[in-house]
Amino acid sequence: MSDAQENQWNQFITQHKGCFLQSWSWGQFQKAIGRQVWPIEIKQDLKALVLKYDLPSGKNYLYCPRGPIMEQVGVSQAAQADNPEAMSLFLEEIRQIAKQAKSIFLKIEPPIHSHFLKSFFNKPANKFTKSKKEIQVSETLVLDTNKPEQELLNQMHQKTRYNIKLAQKKGVIIQLAEPSDQLAMETFLELLKVTADRDKFHLHNQEYYLKMWQVLGKEGMVRLFLARHQDKVIAANLVCFFGSTVTYLHGASDYKFRDLMAPYLLQWEAISQAKKIGFRYYDFWGVDEKKWPGVTRFKMGFSGERVSSLGAFDLVFRPIWYQTYNLARRIL
């Protein structure tokens, strides 16, 4: 695909409120980590990145994250063209891909604001099953940055404001890593492993983050914010810039320096950067009081609107293998 075609793809995704998971660049990153990717276009009505997720024993399923993206009408973010014909053509292509790839099922996690797709998936005639297994976050927190900085600060929790000022007072400095700075990424990965061990959350393998930095960092879509104190990196955030939204992807911090409150200043600096260069929204990418109580409390301190996803929907091609997959997932 030419540069012009890639730009056209991303413009469509942006124009119709799609997120970075449907960007052309995200597809290139997925290829770089070894996944097969199909970019599907239905006239001027629909675009979707579809990925192949491998399973044990040579099995696989297809996955469309926060897609497909369909042409929207009007000015409302929720307004979307009712286009069952485009969806039918899209699913015809999916069935052909599934047949060639011998895929067990297709998993779709539709765009958050797509009311047409919600009704489409819930119609029994369309043969989608509501899935309990979601890959993306079920609920997130989105901050509208289209306000004066002081107003953004004023609407935060008082303790959050205090901790931002405390980090500044104690000499924490935020820097943006250069895309070619491999050492900065290695430092981030060291911090990330320590953070994951401490807070007991799952990480991708190291190659995943390195490829993300190599593919998406080079073009400025993913940026690495570093918090330094006396020339030592004590915290870092990996943040994605796409469309009208900046999304907080991954964060890490050194627990020994927790009293310096660097993570608060890191978030505020990313929010300020988003506002300064014209991005309308800052997405904290996931809140859940049960799964991540501490992290959720931290994010909620910055204020914003809680937004829920439509969930996940599976279209089954191989019923027996689908049952086996679900049984294995419950056991494991």
Question: What key phrases describe this protein's structure?
Answer:
332 residues, alpha+beta, Aminopeptidase, 2 domains, seven-stranded mixed sheet, 11 helices, 14 strands, 40% helix
How does this model look, in words?
It contains 11 helices and 14 strands. Helix 6 (158-169) packs across helix 9. The chain folds into 2 domains: 3-136 and 310-331, Aminopeptidase (3-Layer(aba) Sandwich), CATH 3.40.630.30; 140-308, Aminopeptidase (3-Layer(aba) Sandwich). With 332 residues, the chain is of the alpha+beta class. Helix 9 (262-276) links the parallel strand 11 (245-253) and strand 12 (281-283). Mean pLDDT is 93; it is low at 74-80. The strands form 2 sheets. Strands 1, 2, 3, 4, 5, 6 and 14 form a 7-stranded mixed beta sheet that branches. A 7-stranded mixed beta sheet has the order 8-9-10-11-12-7-13, with helices on both faces. The longest helix is centred in the N-terminal third of the chain and has 18 residues, at 84-101.
